[in-house]
Amino acid sequence: MNTHRLTLAALTVLPLVVSCGAEKADGSSVGAAASVKGVHWSVDSVTADGRTSEAPSGAYLRIDEDGGTSGDLGCNSFGGKASVTADHVSFGSLESTGMACEKTPMAFERKLSATLGAGPLALDGSGDRLTLTTGDGDRVRLTKEPDAPLRGTAWKVTALGGDGTSTALPAEADPRLTFDPRTDKVSGSLGCNKVTAKATVRDGHITLGRPSTTRMMCDTSLMKAEKALLRLFDGTVGYRLDHRSLTLTSENGETAHAVAPSGTD
């Protein structure tokens, strides 16, 4: 996948009021850096030139404890390094993917990039909410989004892969799998047919039993995706959780990538 460079100006982070933060003699908080790092900040909206644009599903910003940064601008994801102190965070040159999306996500991405790169942004936070404001009054509104648990989440499968490649599922496909902590079973939809099977979770692996499915026939693309998903069953798969995404990997290297549903899914 092609990548391109995205350079953001240094972002000045003003002290964030947090209940656990100590205060200096001048009254400013010294807990701001800790409160910003390690948090998945979901982008809610961007207001620029007096016009507010709601963020596409999945837009976010994250700064890790080791100084790495990653996120999604609305269409393309990005990654790089960030330097955070008690009162500012500086983004260097970031690498972004080069996908083309529909008109609305691309327009939002350009607006978000321009706002983040507009120089120092004042930070106002309360609870799980953050607002970054430029000197001209443009704003990025963010909300802390909690991690999704493996069990009890209706995981939406978005891509299947193998041999180092990954292919997005057809737009009309909507396979979802839920691991039930009470019954130790997985159930849901394969995109066409419903499925249920035994699922034993242990030490980063899930042992999936023989699947029981309904017998409907659907379009060729849906049946092809369903067949690929079924190959994960009746065996052991490794799993990796990353905030609200789940990757299942079979013993022969086939993968399924899934995401936790947002409030609109």
UniProtKB/TrEMBL annotation:
It holds the Pfam family META. It comes from the Bacteria. Residues 34-140, 148-257 form the DUF306 domain. Residues 1-24 form the signal peptide. InterPro entries: DUF306_Meta_HslJ, HslJ-like_sf, Hsp_HslJ-like. Keywords: Signal. PANTHER family: DUF306 DOMAIN-CONTAINING PROTEIN (PTHR35535:SF2), HEAT SHOCK PROTEIN HSLJ (PTHR35535). This is META domain-containing protein. It comes from Streptomyces doudnae.
